[in-house]
Amino acid sequence: YDKFILSYFQDEVISSLNLGTSGYGVLTGYATGIVYAFLALPTAYVADYTSARVWVLTVAALWWSLCTIFQGLSNNFWQILLARIGMGIGQAPVEALSVSLISDLMGKKYVFFGSRYAGQSHRLILRLCTD
């Protein structure tokens, strides 16, 4: 949900930070997307060819959590931008490492079965929280 939080509060963010549409676009799309895209491939390599998967996933989750907190504490455009870039750094390893670890636990035959139901659980949580 941290990727979409700025979209939920678009009007408040734009007015409180005096942002234009281009500044808001940078914060909501490019800040995490470009970093995420560049780091996804190296972390997929780590997931497939090293034994440091759990360690890298732990550090990434910790970094992602800290950057989410920093985003909430930010007071200007540059602080939010840096926090969102940091979130992209933390998010990039999560998918590749998670699928790799799930395949070790479940076997390759059931990887997509487990990923499908784990990925859809967020819809139930969101529905319970918004009702």
Give the structural class: mainly alpha
Number of strands: 0
Helix percent reads: over 70%
Give the distance, in angstroms, between the N- and C-terminal Cα atoms: 16 Å
Described by the principal axes of the CA atoms, the overall outline is elongated
Major sheet attributes? none
Q: In percent terms, what proportion of residues is strand?
A: under 5%
The value of Rg in angstroms is 17 Å
- Which blocks of ≥5 consecutive residues have pLDDT under 50? none
Q: Mean pLDDT across all residues, rounded?
A: 78
Write the element-wise H/E pattern from the N-terminal end onward. HHHHHH
How many H/I helices?
6
Could you please describe the fold and organization of this structure?
It is a single chain. By secondary structure, the protein is mostly helical. The chain has six helices and no strands.
Any key phrases for this structure?
single chain, 131 residues, mainly alpha, 6 helices, 0% strand
Write the layout of secondary structure elements.
Blueprint: H1 5-8, H2 10-17, H3 21-49, H4 53-73, H5 77-106, H6 111-130
Q: Quick summary of this structure?
A:
This protein is an all-alpha fold and 131 residues long.
